[in-house]
Amino acid sequence: MEVDREWMYEGQIVNGMFSNKWGDKVDEFVAFALRHPECVNGGTAIRCPCTLVKCQNKKFLNVETVKVHLYKNGFVPDYYVWIYHGEKEVHQRCSRSVRVSVSETDQMVSDNMNHTTYHRMVCDAAGPEFNPDEEPNAEARNFYDMIRAGDKPLYEGNSKHTQLSAAVRMLEIKCRHKCSQAWFDDMSNFIQELLPPDNLMPLDFYSTKKLVRGLGLPVQVIHCCVNNCMIYWGDDSDLNSCKKCGHARYKQTVRDPGNRLYIRKLKVPYKKMHYFPITPRLQRLYASTATANEMRWHSEHHMEDGKMCHPSDAPAWKHFDGCFSDFSSEVRNVRLSLFADGFQPFGQSGQQYSLWPVVVTPYNLPPDLCMKEEFMFLTVLVSGPTNPKGKIDVFLQPLIAELKSLWGVGVQTYDISKRQNFQMRAALMWTINDFPAYSMMSGWSTAGMLACPHCMEDSDAFRLIKSGKQSWFDNHRKFLPINHPYRRNTKDFIKNRKVTKQFPGVRSGDEILQDLNNRGLRKVMDVDAEVVNAAISKTCGWNKRSIFWDLPYWREHLLRHNLDVMHIEKNVFDNIFNTVFNIPGKTKDTYKSRDELNKYCRRPQFAQNLVTSKYPDVPFVLNKSQKKDVLEWVKKLRFPDGYASNLGRCVDAKKLKMFGMKSHDCHVFMQRLLPIALREFLPNRIWEPLTEISLFFKQLTSSSLTDEELRNLDEQIPVILCNLEKIFPPSFFDSMEHLPVHLAYEARIAGPVHYRWMYPPERYLRKIKHKIMNKAQVEGSISIGYIMDEAAKFASFYFKEGDPTLPLKEKRNEVYLDDIVDDDMFEIFKPPGKAIGAEGKRYLADNEYTAAHLYILMNCPEVQPFIDVFITEKRRQFPNLNDEVVNVVTEQEFPSWFEKYVHNRYGTWTR
């Protein structure tokens, strides 16, 4: 589109009077701006493009004031393209013609405002109300210091880096590589030796931190009762002792009797927590051009073929949208998840110390950014040394209060991608925790015979006679269809027992809340909570009223707390592996379980021999030679780099077991290796249920799921568990073997599992643990490191390569296809990776050569047309062939057919 914009700078004054034609053009300009709501603030305010220093497309004013400014001061120079008022692309017809597209907008902003990239970084961090041309106040002085540092070259003649850019780059490198402050100081000293004497490079970590302190976000230190009874916050902030236990808030002052001097300074609290407000952290997601657009992804994408690939595709999200249409109508409102877990900062052999971080993360982002470390926000840091257990609600009070404010009122936030302010609100969707922390968050006890939070009082668990442990044996037939034959089976399950009842379903939020109210449960912050809740918990599974019920929308959620698939899968695998390998102390097939087996089931073949007093072998346990074969096979396994750890290191060939397996090792073994490892050694009636439970977890943890697939899994899992009950003794089935029956339901309600399991949180906790540089002050060390990491990550978005969607560094075997020069190379020989370690050569055996040849042919896109020709010929010759037979014939005959076909058709084979 070509337009004439010369009128903006010509014809304003005619014969000493304002031109009516020029005034009409100004009215047209204002009308144009008002037609683009993304550039309008509050309905009537637009950016003023006059020449005043305070304006110049930086300040929002009402339209009448903008007209007065334009009449008085004229347009800012060279503003031919109205990019601040909604114009996307224009070709100006004049002697100084320019062409600007959307992709060039940010550069225009920088050029017109005489701002560098780091100027934009400072302004984005300060927010839309910050005006760099106004006189600074005490609060804004940090930003002015950074702007001045952004104007100063690192040394005379250096056009690449300024004092600010060098500081934030050094800080980002320190945080990315987890370097110490001592390393930073030494490296700064070394760089000083390389630079000219009059350089402005910060001298050490302290001066760097002081320079970029404006990029950091706030943190609050709140005093706590040493017994976790309360926090000195809100109305209780002025108390000097705990209102529940009476313990003093501050440590006693100690005097030196001789000199009468204070040894300890006044008012040192016994305990304190750190709270990192989430509001400014969520606002910063909209302040940066690197993330603002991505925060709307959840509403702009569409499901393909009915596959759920994100929580926004799931019924729970859509149900919440339907209940609160005023919230969902603003797509920039934020959906959050929360997770909490404890860790030992000093290692297993150090001081016993339990530290509990509470972290929130937004779900608005696309799959490649959602649940990534860069977008996980540490919110509460519950200090040790003791585990808060059920009293964690005490430390969540500031977070819940802020979430209630973000839900009810919201906060005005500037969206840099649309260049407008909006009222941002936020809602917590659910929590993600392991099973013990599930109880801490929900208030439902996850120990004992009522441990299942879905079955609740409908549980059929019982206590075993000999071992005294709870068992969930024969607790799954109630999930089967009413006419299923297993319901009438009186032999393979608890003897002489038929099951007619059905699982009543998961309770709604309203039903649970009514139950809590009827029972009179208290929040742990209440003065009488400990006595009242202890009495009530003896008659039900509830042990408190969770603080999350204070959120006005919590009762409407279809799912409030997630069962953690990661730990459930690991526990199921551990039970299976330890029992099949008969690991002493860990197997579920013990002499006690054999003694009580026939008290519950009809399995006389496994009873004790009264003559020899020995127990017969069971078919689900491997013998010594079979164990050796499996472990030798595992030891020789090799996986793609980054797929799994070296499982061979976990093999103990002497004790015939595996040790030191992490959760992800169990995940890989359970889904990929277990059916293969046991295929040749176990009878089919045992191997098949184990394979079915393996495939269940494999399908459940897929990156995309359909409702039909999940309904099938929901129907299959009770049968799978019943088949396992026919094999293993009742002692095998603890609560972790029962919980898989509910996992498919949760996935059908809330979406793919990898957004709701503990793998990302566990990795993030490892990152937090690495921030501990001073073990005498664990919480303070983490707090300082986290604030610096936030500032460095925010600054990295403004580097040339600062895109959060790209990895910060290449993996050790990573290459890019652009680096491969040979364009004629077949695609299968262009892997995005390279070999690791020394090169080795050997000749392939005949079967290996045949397998490699077949793999290349079947996976090479260039050969696919010939495979289609082969299959077409075979189907023409044998019309009744099914797909399975066709696949077998293709693998057996295609390589030789392909060689003859090419030679006959093309002569000598060439590419």
Which features characterize this protein?
911 residues; alpha+beta; seven-stranded mixed β-sheet; three-stranded mixed β-sheet; 38% helix; globular
Overview of the molecule:
It is built from 30 helices and 22 strands. With 911 residues, the protein is of the alpha+beta class. The longest helix is centred in the last third of the chain and has 24 residues, at 883-906. It is globular.
Oligomer: single chain
The biggest sheet, with number of strands, parallel, antiparallel or mixed sense and barrel status, is: 7 strands, mixed
SS elements, strand count: 22
Q: Return residue spans where pLDDT drops below 50 for at least 5 consecutive residues.
A: 90-115, 800-808
- How many helices does DSSP assign? 30
Strand residue percentage? 5-15%
Overall mean pLDDT: 84
What is the strand arrangement across the widest sheet? 8-9-13-12-11-16-19
Q: Given the helix and strand composition, which structural class is it?
A: alpha+beta
Distance between the termini: 48 Å
**Portion of residues within helices:** 25-40%
CA gyration radius, whole angstroms: 34 Å
Overall body shape: globular
